[in-house]
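Entry type: protein chain
Record version: 2
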Amino acid sequence: MSHRVILVVLDGLNHAVGHHAMGHLSALVQAGRGHVTYLDCELPAMSRPLYECLLTGNRPVDSGVVHNGIVRRSYGQSLFDLAVAQGKRTAAAAYHWVSELYVAAPFDRTSHRFLDDPSQAIQAGIFYWQDHYPDDHLFSDAEALRRRHDPDFLFVHSMNIDDAGHRHGGDSPQYRNAARHADIALADYLPGWLAEGYQVMVTADHGMNADRSHSGMLEEERRVPLWLLGGAFAAPGDLEIHQTHLCGTLATLMGLDHTKPWHSELIANHGAAS
């Protein structure tokens, strides 16, 4: 088994809004082209610690990236590292904190914004630093990287939903409409990605509360949606999904050798869990 994979992270999207606001993603599921479920993120429910969790499988208390002010390269083995070490191509269109975790820290806007370096864990990248950088620009950046570099693993990370939540709160029309706009922007690219044979996972790092923040135990802060799009994914049923297992699940889907925890139940026609 060896599939090309795209991981889309919609920063700050909680499950409740994701459940009702994402019309195109829901249409793909209803058309039998994917599945949808949810999971509770690790703690603290903060961005940089959970980028690290999603991309290495390490909990924040284990990775040492325990809040957003930890500015250094990751000490863990990321999905980017695994892929490049085993001859795969990687790319990312993402917020600059991802560059700091897997390329170099601190981020330099001039030298680090555009990346084309086969020696790096992220071999091709376009990174932004404004939280209101438009999602439609971000997804266009991702598609440009895909067409130019034909990556086996593409990471796509948008910030507009999180930005709207911090400005207006998780129970606001601005937050809900930011989710709708992200769904519309994704609709321009998801069908093409699936037609090209990519398996696409769409999720969030954390959610958002009505206080315009996140980090703790409230359901609206921790519970996030998970869409699994493409024929290589299995229906999750009532499986309790762990955020720490997503990295290993994608690594398995890509045919990579690894020792990370993963959910065999999420991969179609796969045997017992490892």
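Comment: The CA atoms of residues 35 and 235 lie 6 Å apart.
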